[in-house]
Amino acid sequence: MSRKTFKILVAGHFGAGKTTFVKTVSQIETISTERKTTLVEEKAKKETTTVAMDFGEYINKYGHKLRIFGIPGQERFSFMWPILAKDTKAFIFLVDSTDTSRWFEIPKQIKVLIKVSPSAPFLFVANKTDLPEAMSADEIRRRLRIPSHIKVVEGVATDRTTVEKILDEITEEILKRNPDLKNF
Asked: How far is it, in rounded angstroms, from Cα 72 to Cα 116?
């Protein structure tokens, strides 16, 4: 089998762990557009925020190259969402399982992503499940009303093994939807 290259977009609300996810698994030096957070309510959560994108690459266990793009979560950077979603093969959507305060950002982002790449599969990740106050994947599915046909898994963006498994899982979803790609 020859290698295929897939564009994977890592989305989610502010503080969900998108930048960490990309940096944890990238096999190249990541490109990051982190800048100091300027809004008071955001500074309380973290000091920096992505203003355009994060980028890394990873060759998975199937030999496919994944070009991983992390997008900013806040609506003020929403002009980047459709630009980065173009030609995406799959979406990984991170949700902070310890803090619901930014979940209001999720629906608009999902609508934009689906509009740009309607056939790309989604995989939701309940991030930060290593923390004691974390909600389970089932709880997040229930609270966000995620349909049963969309996978929701637990994850830890700082753990390379976990992130690799998530990327393998989304690759399997791509191949399941596009069986003709298995022959390349």
From this structure: 16
Structure tokens at 180: 């003709």
Per residue in 133-177, pLDDT tens? 999 999 999 999 999 989 999 999 999 999 999 999 999 998 887
Q: Is-above-0.90 flag for pTM? A: no
| DSSP-derived pairing of the beta strands 5-12 and 122-127 | unpaired
Do the beta carbons of residue 146 and residue 140 sit within 8 Å?
A: yes
Q: Give me 81's structure tokens.
A: 């969402």
Residue 156 falls in which region: left (phi positive, over 0), alpha (psi -120 to 50) or beta:
beta
Q: In terms of DSSP H, where are the helices of the chain?
A: 18-25, 40-43, 80-85, 106-116, 137-144, 160-177
181, 175 contact by CB (below 8 A): yes
183 CB burial (10 A radius; 0-12, 13-18, 19+)? exposed
Q: Using the CB atoms, write b or e for 49-71: b if 16+ within 10 Å.
A: bbbbbbbbbbebeeebebbbbbb
Structure tokens at 83: 């630009």
